[in-house]
Every structure is written in C-alpha cells, then in structure tokens.
Amino acid sequence: MRVPPDVPTLHVILPGDIDDPASPSGGNGYDRRICAGLAAAGWAVHEYAVTGDWPHPAPTARAVLAGVLASLPDGALVLVDGLVASVVPEVLAAHSGRLRLVALVHLPRDDDTEATALAEVTAVVATSSWTRDTLLRRYALPAGRVYVAPPGVDPASPASASVTGSALLCVAAVARHKGHDVLVEALTMLTDRRWTLTCVGPLHREPEFVDRLRARIDAGRLGERVQLVGPLSGDRLDAAYAGADLLVHPSRGETYGMVVTEALARGVPVLTTAVGGLPDTLGHTVGGDRPGLLVPADDPAALAAELRRWLDDATLRAHLRQAAVTRRDTLADWSGTVTRIITALKEASA
To answer: How does DSSP assign 4-44, residue by residue?
Structure first.
C-alpha cells in the first residue's frame, strides 16, 4: 500500500531475534515498544529483522544488512539498533551520505569500531542518561546530536507481599554479566534463613556458565530453594513478579535495568548493584527515600549482608515496600519514551 506523502516514514533495522520468545531481552522489548508506539502515533514503520549473531555477525549477515540499506530510497530515515549499528561501520559508511541514519544505543561497547560507526550516523539515541554521558565521554560526538529516551513501564497491580519477605526473584538472562554466580554464592551464606529464589531468564546464551551455576547450587545444597525456570512472558511473567517480595538484580554492568522499574511498577523493592545506570533507575521517592538497596558489584559478602538485613528486619521491609509503592507513582510510561524518540527523529530529518 502506498504511504501518503504527509505521513512520516521510518525504516527500522532490528536484530534477527527481535521476536524470539526463547531470547527475551530488555533491548528487544524496548525496540518492540518503540515500533508499536511510533505506529500508533501515525508513523509508517517498516521493520527489517536482520538475521545474524549480533554483535558478532558473519559476512553473510553484513551482506544482508548492506542489501537492506541499498534497497532504501535516498533520504530515507533509518533507525538502526545499536547491537547492529555499532559493529558495522563500513556498511553504514557506504550509505551515510544518502540515508539519514540514527543509531539506537542500548549498551555502549567502548571500542574503535563503535566510535567509527557512530561517527557515520546523523544522530544517536541513548536509552539512559548514563549511556549518553558514557558515549560523550568515550567518543568525539557532538552533544547536540546525542539524545536520551529512557524506557517506560506499564502500570501494574501491586504485588502481594508476604510476612517473611522470603520470596526472592531475579529476572535476567542467566549469564556471567548478570551476576547470578554472585547471588548464589551470597545465598550459600544464608542457608540458616528462610528464603526461595526464582531465576527467570534464558538459559542458552552461556551454557558453560549455566552448568557451573547449577554445580554450585548443587554443591551448596540449594537445589530445593533455587529454581532456574527459563524465560517467561505475559501472564506467567506477571505472576512471577506478583509472587515476589524482593527483586534481586546483582548485575556486573547495566545501562538502565528495565527489570528494576518492572518490579517498582508492582511495588516490589529492589536489591541491586551500584553500577552503570542502576542507581538512577532505582531512583528515589519524592521524599528522598530509596525504594530498595544498593550493593557493590561482584561482592557476595556485601550482597549476603543486605539480604540478611532484608530477611531479618521487618521494619526495613515495611519501609522499603512503602517506598516502592510510592516510587511506582513517579515512573514514566512508554508514551514519554516514544515522544523523545520522535523528537530525535524529526531533528535528524531536518
């Protein structure tokens, strides 16, 4: 169908696993919400899911991407997911003179390849203020063409907190950088306390890490208390949050941490690491209270100490739950994210 000339048109380059239920990720979820939001706002959105092992594409994947870009008309506005854009500077360079390329960066790579790639685009959209600041510090990018569009979150019903606070939840791909090994090590120090841990997230990305994690769980005799349930979505994921007392996110590095706001949207406090954009995402209530706890990354003893405080101190649990319920009222929804994206796209089109 021919698009009327007054309808803004956007071509979006996405990783090939964008809709793979076995590989949910914050980045894919963000991309999907942005595409839907732009379409709802009246944009003609054309999606191109480029198959490949991004960010480590084979020559065939690069060729497919080059073919997609070559097929677009001169002057076309193109939003390229950073998982793709940051590793193919030569492909972008071949079309940067005739296309208006915008890179959507979820996670900075900090290498010369990304620096070269981002130098080829008209604008950059970062998904957090921490990411924008990092990009500007690392690369010679004009500040005026690097925008921020943080993720939104959907409203949700408050979770039903238990009296003991013993239901712990971790939502992340089971991989080293998410810190599951640190969490399990911390929990081995708390076998005299009452708790359970449900880990929700893909198990196939780092199989050797998962095998080592399972071995540590078995060695610590935690098998009846720690469950690795794999990826969940829809009602099943909602049920996991609804049954949680505390979200534990022991990541070694994070630019934003969408699971943090997913928990806060349900009034669930968060215990996470003080790295990257996580402190900003956790945020404060209007009154200045943290709706959770921060610990150093890669520190099982510190994590165990805060978990012990949570489990032992009913007053602390009540305070953090109230702060989380209050914080949920200040969370931004996805319409604000889409508005920021539209601003960046329109300025890139000028």
So the answer is: PTTS-EEEEEEETTTT-TTS--HHHHHHHHHHHHHHHTT-E
